[in-house]
Amino acid sequence: MAIDFHAHANRYTYAGRQAAGDWPDAMRGLIDPTGMRVVDIGCGGGIYTAAWARLDAASVVGVDFSEQMLAAARERNSGANVTFRKGDARATGLADGCADVVFSRAMIHHLDGLDDCLAEMHRLLVPAGLCIIQERTPEDVELPGSPEHIRGYLFERFPRLLDVERGRRPTTAAVAQAFVRSGFPPPSGATLWETRQVHRDGTGLADDLRGRTGRSILHELDDAELETLIAFIGDRIPKGRPVVEKDRWTLWSASRD
Fold first, then answer.
1. How much helix, strand and coil, in percent to the nearest 5, is found in the chain?
2. Distance between CA atoms of residues 6 and 90, nearest Å
3. Which of 110, 7, 15 is nearest to 68 (CA)?
4. Range of 101's domain?
5. Which listed residue, 9, 79, 121, 243, has the most CB atoms within 10 A of its CB?
6. Is 203 a member of any domain?
7. How many folded domains does the chain comprise?
8. SS (H, E, C) 197-250
9. Do strands 125-135 and 99-105 pair parallel, antiparallel, or not at all (unpaired)?
10. Residue 123 included in any domain
């Protein structure tokens, strides 16, 4: 049962946290966004839209196709330089050349094909504007579980979830080829270990998992299976201590000629 991004029950699933410090450090390693116009495509609840604003971007526009996600984004994030609008990743409705930076995180694996989305990103950018995509590849998701890499435990306990991931996560080659077909030069690639959340202890992590917070893959499990997974993870993490949860990502970036 894939996640329904339009359901009211899922409104806050991508809106309840802030980007950790390692993420802005990674973005500053690619570009200084001070005074720039940023478009965040597939913004969900606006976590990274707000993070770009905190990096002193002049303006940040979050675009998403879900009214429920946008409602949560508007509720949780405010500021003169942050706006949200409904639009498709392949047809945002924004003007040509309206952005100095176009960003997308954890979105392209939901698309059926990458070319239309990359072409839209290319259209939105000014010459020399930067396109940044943050996504997990099959190699990223196949890493084993550990007390920091909690995601790996999902696939250890329910191998069928790994089959789902392998079927939807783009390869590095596929993303690079889509960049080039859409008018970009070959992108640079980098790996990012991003702190997803620091949970107060295993109970805090269990609550987060139980809510399927920000993890669309958990919607593939029914409630009983989810409880089995929570118990499985609970047996593998330290008791009574904070859980620093990290995920490995791939970053691609390229400037429009």
1. 40, 25, 40
2. 18
3. 7
4. 8-144+169-196+249-255
5. 121
6. no
7. 1
8. EEECCHHHHHHHHHCCCCCHHHHHCCHHHHHHHHHHHHCCCCCCCCEEEEEEEE
9. parallel
10. yes
Cβ neighbour number for residue 21 with a 10 Å cutoff: 10
CB 47 within 8 A of CB 17: yes
- 189 domain-assigned: yes
Residues of the chain falling short of pLDDT 50: none
Nearest Cα neighbor of 161 from 188, 142, 180, 135 is 142
| 125-135 and 243-255 strand pairing | antiparallel
Contacts of 8 (CB under 8 A, 6+ apart): 68
Q: Contact at 8 Å (CB) between 50 and 80?
A: no
Structure tokens at 20: 């950790």
- Assign residue 111 the CATH number of its domain: 3.40.50.150
Positive/negative CA dihedral, 11, 16, 22, 25: positive
Cβ atoms within 10 A of the Cβ of 257, count? Answer: 9
Residue 39 lies in a domain: yes
Instruction: Report the C-alpha dihedral over residues 210, 214, 218, 220, rounded to 10 degrees.
Output: 130
Torsion of CA 71, 76, 78, 82, to 10 degrees: -60
pLDDT of residue 53: 96
pLDDT tens sequence across 176-218: 999 999 999 999 999 999 999 999 999 999 999 999 999 999 9
Place of tokens 């390229």: 254
| Spatial CA neighbour of 249 closest among 147, 133, 153, 165 | 133
